[in-house]
Design brief:
The structure holds two protein chains of two kinds. Chain A is of the alpha/beta class. In chain A, 49% of the residues lie in helices and 16% in strands. The longest helix of chain B has 19 residues, at 104-122. By secondary structure, chain B is mainly α. The chains are: A alpha/beta, B mainly alpha. Chains A and B meet through helix 3 of A and helix 5 of B.
């Protein structure tokens, strides 16, 4: 199943979103890379990259604003593991909902990415 | 004008001191037209760079130095500046690979590549009131062998009067006219120290 990696400035925001997604798609694995190490607001490429090590299948990265996207793209460039990971630009909440549902329907990463692009392009 | 590995190292140590001296100003500017963390983020990142530069033995070449600095910035700065400055130094690392010193158009080319890296990472262009508005005139002056210090000062004045159309500051629209962009100021502080060692 495609894993979702939620990249947000706020750990609370990402945790809340994860709760919402669990109602819609309880089986979809959701990883969080949110906030800074000390719990404060921000995004960090090395934390995002570290979250990639927890993937148990292909991964889809979703971000909130500005530097979350920059750090996510940088983390993808730095990643040297074996998983296929993609980033799609979409509104975080809406994008994560759609992706979680599609993943829960056992769609492939390509199908999930296409679904998001079609909806949010 | 030639940039050696030791000169580059020296300029970055001095830039760290400049950023520390301007920490509050950078934060205050960012509080006006952003999220108020630029001074804190840049200070944290460049203090880490300074520590790295002072404790690391000799660097093999400019590329090695640039790569270490880039990775340190990516890991420590946070915010938008971490990936932007980090990418600039990773691009320097590519351009400077295996070189102990560079000069002339080769030096200018490295700054063009760093600027392109910042633009790519931030999906930004010149004229949007960001650090790109400093880096672009700087590499142009370097290519044309013009007065670098004057180019930075002019770029700062021009940037201050623009409307922000990229990044968080863009949410403030017209209110950004007359307020200096914090990323432009921190870039100017860094590039001015590089100019100092080039003229040294």
């Amino acid at each position: 199943m495609v894993n979702l990696i939620l990249v947000s400035h706020s750990e609370k925001l990402a945790t809340g979103l994860k709760e919402l997604l669990a109602e819609m798609a309880p089986d979809t694995p959701i990883l969080l890379a949110a906030g800074l190490e000390d719990g404060s607001i921000g995004t960090d490429a090395s934390r995002i990259e570290a979250s990639f090590d927890q993937l148990n299948d292909d991964g889809l990265v979703l971000t909130d604003i500005g530097s979350a996207t920059m750090n996510a793209e940088l983390a993808l460039e730095l990643y040297s593991g074996d998983r296929t990971i993609q980033f799609v630009e979409s509104p975080l909440v809406e994008g994560a909902f759609l992706a979680a549902v599609l993943s829960g329907q056992s769609k492939s990463l390509t199908e999930v990415v296409d679904g998001l692009k079609k909806e949010f392009a | 004008m030639k940039l050696t590995t030791e000169q580059f190292r020296e300029s970055l140590v001095k830039a760290a001191a400049q950023i520390e001296a301007h920490k509050d100003e950078l934060t205050d500017l960012d509080r006006e037209i952003g999220d108020g963390d630029h001074g804190i983020n840049m200070s944290r990142g460049f203090q880490a760079v300074q520590k790295e530069l002072e404790t690391h033995g000799a660097y093999e070449d400019l590329g090695d130095l640039s790569k270490q600095v880039g990775m340190t910035l990516i890991k420590t700065v946070g915010g938008a500046s971490g990936p932007l400055y980090g990418t600039a130094f990773v691009k320097f690392a590519g351009a400077f690979k295996g070189k102990k010193e560079v000069e002339g158009q080769e030096l200018a080319q490295a700054f063009i590549e760093a600027t392109e890296g910042i633009k790519m990472r931030g999906k930004s262009e010149f004229g949007q009131k960001t650090m790109v508005d400093i880096w672009t005139p700087f590499h142009e002056a370097l290519s044309q062998e013009a007065d670098l210090k004057a180019a930075i000062e002019q770029a700062l004045r021009d940037t201050k009067e623009r409307v922000a159309t990229k990044g968080r500051a863009s949410y403030f629209g017209e209110a950004t006219v007359g307020v200096q962009d914090p990323g432009a100021l921190s870039s100017a502080l860094l590039l001015q120290e590089i100019v100092e060692v080039l003229h040294g």
